[in-house]
Amino acid sequence: MSLSLSTTVLLARSRTAADRSRIHLATAALAFSGALLINAVHIALLGWGELSKDLYSNYVAEAGLRPGLTATLGVLAVLAGSLAVQALRLGTAARERRFAALQLAGASLGQVRRLSTADATLIGLVGGLLSGPLYAVLTALFGGLPLVARVFPGLSLSDLPVWIAVAVVLTLCGAAMGYLTYRGPSANRQASTFPVPTGVIGGLACLVLAALTWSRVPFFTVPLILIGLAMLWATQVHKLAGPVGRLLGRSGTAGQLLAGARIVADARSAARMGGVLLGCAFLVGALAHVALYTGIDKNDPDSLGFYFAGYVMSGLGLTLIAGIALASLTVGVADQLVDQRRQLACLTALGVDARFLRQVIRDQIAMVATPALMIGCCAGLLVGPGGLIGFQVDLPSVPFLAAGLAGLLLLSWGFATGGAALAGYLLRNQLRDALDPENLRAA
Predict the structure, then answer these.
(1) Helical axes 267-297 vs 241-249, angle rounded to 10°
(2) CB 244 within 8 A of CB 260
(3) Is the N end or the C end of the chain the one with fewer CB atoms within 10 Å?
(4) Torsion, CA 306, CA 312, CA 313, CA 318, rounded to 10
(5) With helix as H, strand as E and coil as C, how does the chain read?
(6) CA dist 216 to 206, 244, 387, 388, 393, Å?
(7) What separation, in Å, do the N-terminal and C-terminal C-alpha atoms of the chain show?
């Protein structure tokens, strides 16, 4: 029996607060991705020649920089779309119960998958329609910045057909994401494996090659250090989960005990996401190294504005990548909530409420993100960009280096703590669903 379009849309609509928060996050991410795509196409349509630097930013006016800016906007759009994928992967206990109930009522697995696809298609359509107004808002906001930072050149009539095309593309992407991210209510979530010996050997080989090429081929030095550190972190840090869990178990605090137990239960996934965060933080530290050197060495205000505008845009891109890694951690936590909803529902009999469990989740994510971000930022600042940007950069003076180190450590702690708090806030409805006593019967 096939479902009509109206029935499919009616059944696909999410009616719980947890599902609505998931949908809002995915829609916002897709709208932002679409706005970046519209701007990238707008800049590409400006042509290949030089433009007036009195009207456009240097990044838009110069023919040599314009393709790079267009490519950067395209990469950021893909990253924002990846954030939407992570949002769609957020599981909720109520959604699992709803799909299970539909299957018990006679719906086939294919029909339930079509409902998931229809839900994501609507998200893509709404995100595509909102990308145009968001692009106009971003253009107005960037129009108030100094000329060198105006990477959104302005609105034109050619943006209208581009907006329509982007809306169609995002709708199709939403349908594909809904189809690919669907998991059946009874699907087993196996603990993901990682080739640990291969990762260790590869990471050590990268570090050895970095040491050998430090003076001869500096172009490869920093990328090799970055890859080596990330691989070692992703493959070895999970071994610390057991000692950390036992240490937290002796703390005497129920919240820290639960947070440690949850980290131990999903140690490999947390280690992999920590490796991504360490890589992002390493690049942020390298950018801070160059920024400190440029601020000391360059005295021309126009030159400083040009350089720092580039650093800020690069930092925003890396922040977006780190945000996606944190979102992946949040998805893992949400999967734990769905998988353990029967045990969590039992906790309600002991007086556990959503506020307490939200604090546990904040501690869990912060414990994974904080050391990775701090170590990555410090390593990037001390090693410096080297060949990453094509030339060697001298080490800043000790006072500037100490100030940069302190600032990066504070920034890392703030990003990890703030990201954990945001994740706890976004998962507040999922927590409430997981603690629902109804899960004792439906799980």
Answers:
(1) 100
(2) yes
(3) N
(4) 150
(5) CCCCHHHHHHHHCCCCHHHHHHHHHHHHHHHHHHHHHHHHHHHHCCCCCCCCCCCCCHHHHCCCCHHHHHHHHHHHHHHHHHHHHHHHCCCCHHHHHHHHHHHHCCCCHHHHHHHHHHHHHHHHHHHHHHHHHHHHHHHHHHHCCCHHHCCCCCCCCCHHHHHHHHHHHHHHHHHHHHHHHCCCCCCCCCCCCCCHHHHHHHHHHHHHHHHHHCCCCHHHHHHHHHHHHHHHHHHHHHHHHHHHHHHHHCCCCHHHHHHHHHHHHCHHHHHHHHHHHHHHHHHHHHHHHHHHHHHHHCCCHHHHHHHHHHHHHHHHHHHHHHHHHHHHHHHHHHHHHHHCHHHHHHHHHHCCCHHHHHHHHHHHHHHHHHHHHHHHHHHHHHHCCHHHHCCCCCCCCHHHHHHHHHHHHHHHHHHHHHHHHHHHHHCHHHHHHHCCCCHHHHC
(6) 15, 41, 11, 14, 15
(7) 27
Q: Are 284 and 384 in contact (CB under 8 A)?
A: no
Distances (CA, A) of 307 to 146, 291, 438: 13, 8, 57
Q: Within a 13 Å sphere around the CA of 233, how many CA atoms are in the beta-carbon half?
A: 26
CA-based Rg of the chain, rounded to a whole angstrom?
24
Under-70 pLDDT residues of the chain:
1-19, 89-98, 107, 182-199, 214-220, 222, 241-242, 245-246, 249, 252, 269, 272, 293-306, 321, 325, 328-329, 332, 335, 384-397, 441-443
The identity of residue 334, as a single letter, is A
Q: How many other CB atoms are found less than 10 A from the CB of residue 312?
A: 13
C-alpha–C-alpha distance, residues 291 and 66, integer Å: 22
Q: Which two structure tokens, joined as six digits, stand for 294?
A: 């440029």
Amino acid at 71: A
Cβ-in-10-Å burial (0-12, 13-18, 19+) of 108 comes to: exposed
- Exposure class string for 208-246: b at 16+ Cβ within 10 A, else e: ebbeebbeeebebbbebbbbbbbbbbbbebbeebeebbe
- How far apart CA 368 and CA 234 sit, in angstroms, is 11
Which residues, other chains included, contact 251 with Cβ-Cβ below 8 Å and sequence gap of 6+? 257
